[in-house]
Design a protein that fits this description.
disordered N terminus, mainly beta, Glucose Permease (Domain IIA), 14 strands, 8-stranded antiparallel sheet
Length: about 160
């Protein structure tokens, strides 16, 4: 009878199906307020950041630790659905050459969200006037959605939804 919609393709559902959890207890913030322009401007991908309350850093996802910076300030993961993820601790923390970072995992480890990956000496960062903000980034995705801004709990609070 009505052929108005006959040639119309079905709509693709825009659902976020992947979840990334908080890496630390603290305050989740938008990347637009991150103190480093490279991260703030999304050059390393979409995501969000956390201003930590303590130095324990946990895995934000179930996945494999693919790369750890020699200085211990950055970790890359591959999730079970094949998404790459970067956790970058602090601003310009590479200059510390590993001082203040106690790495608790190794490359190739499979971890669950909430597994401790690093302990950071926040007092050292503060003494050197280094912001402790931790960025959680999806380098190949700008299609992310911050689920929560404000108070978050490490390994528990979902802070990003993404579409694989």
């Amino acid at each position: 009878m009505f052929k108005l919609f006959e040639n119309q393709k079905p709509r693709k559902e825009n659902r976020y199906v992947g979840e990334i959890r908080a890496t630390q207890d603290g305050e989740a913030i938008s990347l637009s307020t991150f103190p480093d322009a490279i991260i703030r401007d999304g050059i390393l991908g979409g995501g969000m950041a956390i201003i930590p309350r303590n130095g324990r850093v946990v895995s934000p996802v179930d996945g494999t630790v693919t790369t750890i910076a020699k200085s211990g300030h950055a970790f890359c993961f591959e999730t079970s659905d094949g998404i790459g993820l970067l956790v970058h601790i602090g601003v310009d923390t590479v200059v510390l050459n590993g001082n203040g970072f106690d790495v608790l995992v190794k490359e190739g480890d499979y971890v669950l969200a909430g597994t401790p990956i690093c302990d950071v000496d926040l007092a050292l960062l503060e003494a050197r006037n280094i912001p402790a903000h931790t960025a959680i980034l999806l380098p190949s995705h700008s299609d992310v959605e911050g689920a929560v801004l404000g108070c978050v709990q490490a390994g528990v609070t979902t802070v990003i939804h993404y579409q694989p």
